[in-house]
Amino acid sequence: MAERKLQPKVILVADRTLSANYPTLFDGMFATMQTTQVPSLMMKHFVAPPVPTDKQARAEFAPIGLRRIQSALIKYNQLDIDDVVCTTPEALQKLLGPWVEIVAVSSSDPLGHGMSNTTTSNFWKGELYTWLFTRQLLEVLYKAKQKYNFKIIGGGAGAWQWKAFPDDTARRTLDVVYEGYFESAGCALFEEILSGKSIDHHVQCNDSGVDRIVPIKEASIFGSVELSRGCGRGCCFCSMSDQKMEHLPAYIILADIETNIAAGLTSVVSTSEDLFRYGAVGLRPDFEKLTSLLDKMRRIRGIGFMQIDHVNVTSAAQLTNEQLCEIKRLLSWNISHKHLWVNLGVESASGELVKANCPGKVAPYDADDWAELVKETALRLLETGYTPVLSLVLGLPGETPGDISLTQKLVNSLGDKGVVIFPIFYEPVDVKDYKSQDRFTIEEMRLDHLNLYRSCYEINFRNVPGLIYDNQTAAGVKLTKRVAMQMLGKVEIMNWRRAFNKIGKKLADSSLSAQRSVGYAS
Fold it and tell me: Average pLDDT for residues 105-122, to the nearest whole number?
């Protein structure tokens, strides 16, 4: 007997860079930064392998944001699990038909304005895959919309780009651009659409919606598990800059882990802007609440290890070495690995520049002590078993050559310690006028910028391959793929060095030309 065809009212789908079967967070980060310089077949089948679906086109794994929407609609809108289906771009067409009323599309970087990705696209040829895949997905939906007359909602971490930048594909395809966490106003919006009411083209919500979060019904990509939402440190390049950090209850976090384990996953990724602040009311870490949660997570059977995303420098600085060691112990589950990495947003060694652009990042410390605090914290994390992955932002508003010199000095002091340092280009998230935006591109780069960038990447060329190999090993990635990724990494290293040499020559020639012009004029 043939299996019944699903006829969902609501379809949830993400762009192809998000809808991929990544074994580790680093694999996902690597994939979303790629341009079409990487061949499409390699991108789709090796770098970002497809998510498997069942016979009814349900995705076995989906981004955590889509899983949250699914569970919220089932609870608050009284929809059945067959009415709300997470699928993949490849399987989408199997579900489209006159029964569909809403398709919600998620993208982290729909127009290629994410800071990490714009940095890559400045150096590499081709178009960012995040932009290409999102556009291709919207084109498919636009044609289906003409035939079946459903509504299309665009959301996700990159939704702000659809509002800020002109884009013909999005303009004719999207009925609503939704910015913010779904639990805040998403259920009410969906109810209005399902009831046939008129809707606003743009919906923006600042409420975290934590008190309305429902445990996910099916597994998330990476085994992603939300710990907290928001941040509130005021960074000018972050869409969560003004959103107060709020924490999910332990029972929801544990339930989500259980769901991922039941689907066969053996590792999870914590999603939070600052893992060390879990449970804290203010900026001071609550060690007891954090370790209590980690202890409960660690007792769940079937999971090997947890990957960490972000940690704030000042949060790590406020923990003692003994506390950092205990957190590390609780994060090391059934599988041991050398590199438990943590992402620290440093931005610059100039505390005054950081404070001007990220008012809450340095607190509760003094801006004058920022460079030394960063160095000391990175070394303490290394000493207690972590691999610090520092991020820098080039071209922050108000940046001077002196700021770059301070940052270069900090990088030099950490270069042989085992850290990883990623410099990215400043990209504002609140753009009123595309033509007058205050963004940083390769055209604004000076030789000191390039030297700093090159110094960071030479450090990464030494340390990132081992970090990726270690994480993939812990995640159970086959040896053949691990070796192939290392080979691909070597090709990328050659390409990066070639790009640095090319840009360095151009900048040197420009500098020499400017000096000659000054000499001629005098």
Answer: 85
Collapse the DSSP code of 223 into the 3-class scheme (helix H, G, I; strand E, B; otherwise coil) and give the result.
helix
**364 prior amide bond cis, ω within 30:** yes
Tokens of 402: 């002196």
What is the identity of the amino acid at 263?
A
- Look at residue 342 and give its three-state secondary structure: strand
Asked if pLDDT for residue 522 goes beyond 50, the answer is: no
What is the spatial distance between Cα 492 and Cα 482, in angstroms, rounded to a whole number? 15
Cα distances from 141 to residues 84, 148, 175, 331, 446, in angstroms, run 17, 10, 12, 42, 43
In Å, the largest CA–CA distance within the chain is 90
Q: Are strands 102-106 and 420-425 parallel, antiparallel or unpaired?
A: unpaired
What domains are there in the chain, each with its CATH number?
A: 1-208 (3.40.50), 219-336 (3.30.750.210), 345-354+372-506 (3.30.750)
* Tens of pLDDT, residues 179-237: 999 999 999 999 999 999 988 899 998 888 999 999 999 999 989 999 999 887 877 77
Q: Are strands 84-86 and 176-179 parallel, antiparallel or unpaired?
A: unpaired
With CA atoms as reference, report the closest residue to 15 among 125, 95, 129: 129
Average pLDDT over residues 86-94: 97
Alpha-carbon distance of 455 to 430, in angstroms, equals: 30
**Could you tell me the CA-to-CA distances from 205 to 94, 232, 435 in Å, in that order?**
32, 15, 27
Residue 435: both structure tokens together: 């033509």
Average pLDDT, the chain: 90
- Cβ-Cβ contacts under 8 Å for 281 (sequence gap 6 or more): none
pLDDT at 432 over 60: no
Task: For residue 360, give every residue at least 6 positions away whose Cβ sits within 8 Å of its Cβ, in sequence order, or none.
Answer: 232, 233, 234, 283
Distance (Å, whole) CA 343 – CA 389: 5
**Pairing, β 228-229 against β 246-247:** antiparallel
CB 244 within 8 A of CB 238: no
CA atoms of 98 and 94, how far apart (whole Å)? 12
At residue 64, the pLDDT reads 96
Banded pLDDT at 303 (limits 50, 70, 90): confident
Residue of 12, 138, 145, 16 lying closest to 85 (CA atoms)? 12
The amino acid occupying position 503 is: I
Give the pLDDT of residue 67: 97
CA separation for the pair 405, 390 (Å, rounded): 17
Lowest-confidence region among 79-83, 242-246, 431-435, 512-516: 512-516
- How many residues comprise the chain? 522
State the pairing for strand pair 102-106/224-226. Answer: unpaired
SS3 468: helix
The β-bridge partners of 86 are 12
